[in-house]
Write a structure and sequence with these properties.
The protein is of the alpha/beta class. It is 41% helix and 18% strand. It has 9 helices and 8 strands. Strands 1-2-4-3-5-6-7-8 form an 8-stranded mixed sheet, sandwiched between helices. A hairpin with a 6-residue loop joins strand 1 and strand 2.
Length: 320
């Protein structure tokens, strides 16, 4: 019997089965177990934001779970929830508590790169930006203060009211512009989180404004009795060079190569960690990793997994 005839025979036999014995393809959407979605209106500027929350199974500790708030929830919440689920057993096996993850994004269908660029860039009197490889003008920037205020005034209180989290064990995660905003928050709003995770931070932004923030932060005296903030900085080892897989015209590749060289993703991360190591040991407990073989996008899964474990391990004792 040919393969085609065999398939026809199987289909005929299946049609004779009672309805209860047949597999049904309903096309139902896939849900993430343990996850919930909420839409909140910002009390700062009236914009709507969507938050996606995943909670570990089982009873929470009396003090509540550690919690990581993550920018780019639209893109990365699946990675976060899967990684957090994988780390539940490891956390409990080592005497730690698993983490709640909160992805911060936009209502369904409303994400745009322009919105992200506005919300994940700090305000400034003037911006000096390198030419974009595609030649497009830079979109409007500078909404970062309002965005961070919304997280502090609206999102965190909502999560603390509806989920069993420990506000003293909160962490903030971001990648790229989000990583830069994590550093901006650390250097300008030091008391807000116990742990900060900056993945591939865009330190180059506006002539390295966040590096200047770091210098000013490290020159200030530490508040008495304040525990050190935990900071993890990661960057892909291939973020400063053109990957072999990249294709395009010679002109397009030349622009891309110039963009990578100008932004110095790896070197800027090294420079910032060296600055903190020299002058910030009494303010910041620092971890730094260059993830070999990964580019700006491909490094995200590693960064997310490590961010959750860093939250579980290091977000201790920040008084609020």
């Amino acid at each position: 019997m040919t393969r085609a005839l065999l398939l026809l025979a199987l289909a005929a036999l299946t049609s004779l089965l009672p309805p209860s014995a047949r597999a049904e393809d309903t096309g139902a959407p896939v849900e993430i177990e343990g996850a919930r979605e909420h839409v909140l209106k910002s009390s700062v500027n009236g914009t709507m934001l969507r938050i996606l929350v995943w909670s570990p199974p089982g009873a929470p500790p009396e003090s509540g779970f550690p919690v990581v708030y993550a920018f780019d929830g639209d893109k990365n919440f699946g990675l976060f929830s899967d990684s957090a689920r994988e780390l539940v057993f490891r956390a409990r096996r080592t005497g730690r508590q698993p983490a709640v993850v909160v992805g911060i994004g936009y209502p369904r269908g409303e994400y745009t790169l322009a919105k992200r660029n506005f919300d994940l860039t700090p305000p400034a009197d003037h911006y000096e930006m390198p030419p974009r490889p595609n030649g497009a003008p830079w979109p409007t920037m500078g909404g970062g203060t309002m965005f961070l205020d919304t997280v502090e005034n609206d999102i965190r209180p909502f999560v603390q009211q509806h989920y069993p989290v420990n506000p003293q064990r909160a962490a903030l995660f971001g990648h790229s512009f989000g990583g830069m905003m994590v550093l901006h928050s650390l250097f300008n709003r030091t008391d807000n989180y116990a742990a900060y995770i900056a993945a591939s931070p865009s330190i180059w932004f506006n002539r390295k404004a966040v590096y200047r923030d770091a210098e000013a932060f490290l020159q200030r005296d530490a508040p008495p009795g304040r525990p050190n903030a935990a900071l993890r900085i990661t960057v892909g080892g291939d973020e400063q060079s053109l990957g072999e897989w990249e294709q395009g015209t010679d002109e397009a590749l030349a622009k891309r190569r110039q963009w990578l060289a100008t932004n110095r993703m790896v070197d800027n991360a090294r420079d910032l960690t060296a600055l903190i190591t020299r002058h910030g040991k009494d303010r910041i407990d620092l971890e730094f990793e260059i993830v070999r073989g990964e580019g700006h996008g491909s490094v995200i899964p590693d960064a997310v997994y490590d961010a959750i474990w860093f939250t579980i391990s290091h977000s201790q004792g920040m008084p609020r």
